[in-house]
Write a structure and sequence with these properties.
This protein is of the alpha+beta class. The protein is built from six helices and 14 strands. It is about 25% helix and about 35% strand. The strands form three sheets. Strands 1-2-5-9-8-7-6 form a seven-stranded mixed β-sheet, sandwiched between helices. The chain has a five-stranded antiparallel β-sheet with strand order 13-12-11-10-14, with no helix packed on it. A two-stranded antiparallel ribbon has the order 3-4. α2 packs across α6 and α5 crosses α6. The chain binds biotin. The site of biotin (BTN) has 19 residues, from α1, β3, β5, β8 and β9.
Length: about 240
């Protein structure tokens, strides 16, 4: 069993990840808001939340154990959301590598993991998710890629408090699995099952280069292998798009 040590709701904050990083908080502290004003995404992108419509939630880990790869911490956030979506009747949620959550071809959530190191030791790991809940098409038109929300998928406005509460319960259940014996293998399996990558033709964009090929494997660390007919490359950063 796993429970967060502290669950903090904050009315307004620039970024839940930044704030949690700056706090001297204990391992397993969770912080969330429905009004994040300066959210950050992967690759220094901006993450937009619409006031009192969406959820921004971050968790601080102070690892007492070596973290070789925190992809599986991140996977817990996406898998918990896929389960939540199913409960709302949205069956076609899937994980886009590394850990965006999509419904059909619209992005509904993104996860950002950040770490703080001292010498060779990871002192803090902060994982945060932004979930589009009640934002509508008008709100999301401010974003330059195809985006969706729980409201758009279901036509129902949800109670943000109840959504956050249920999502936190899901996270606790999945982290319970994660921290149990063999838990990371189980998370990896479920992550791969919900990932649409294996065998798919994709475009991989990294450092202004573009590769086109087929994903022929996902290794034990969660990194896809892209075969472009000439060479097989391990994808460890950048963005992958299904084509
Ligand atoms: C992405 O898709 O690029 C990742 C987006 C991550 C956004 C979340 S919202 C909660 C946490 N706080 C932030 O500033 N960013 C993450």
């Amino acid at each position: 069993m796993f429970v967060f040590r502290d669950k903090i709701y904050i009315e307004e904050i620039d970024s839940t990840n930044s704030y949690l990083k700056s706090l001297n908080a204990v391992d397993g502290t969770l912080l969330y808001t429905f009004n994040q004003t300066k959210g950050r995404g992967r690759e220094n992108r901006e993450w937009l939340n619409f006031k009192d419509k969406d959820l921004a939630l971050s968790v601080l880990f102070v690892p007492q154990y070596p973290v070789e790869n925190f992809l599986w911490h991140i996977a817990v956030f996406s898998l918990s959301l896929i389960d939540m979506l199913k409960e709302e009747g949205v069956e076609n949620g899937w994980i886009k590598w590394p850990n965006d959550v999509y419904v059909g071809d619209g992005k509904i959530a993104g996860v950002l993991a950040e770490s703080v190191w001292n010498g060779g030791v990871m002192e803090k790991l902060i994982v945060g998710i932004g979930i589009n809940i009640n934002s509508d098409r008008d709100d999301l038109s401010a974003i330059d890629k195809k985006t969706t929300s729980v409201y758009i998928e279901t036509n129902k406005f949800l109670s943000l408090n109840s959504f956050a509460e249920r999502y936190v319960e899901k996270l606790e259940r999945y982290f319970g699995v994660f921290f149990s014996d063999g838990g990371k293998k189980e998370i990896r399996k479920r992550w791969i099952d919900n990932n649409k990558l294996l065998g798919k033709r994709v475009e991989w964009i990294v450092c202004d280069k573009k590769y086109i090929g087929t994903i022929v494997d996902i290794d034990d660390d969660g990194y896809p292998a892209l075969d472009d007919g000439v060479e097989t490359r391990r994808v460890i950063s950048g963005d992958i798009f299904l084509i």
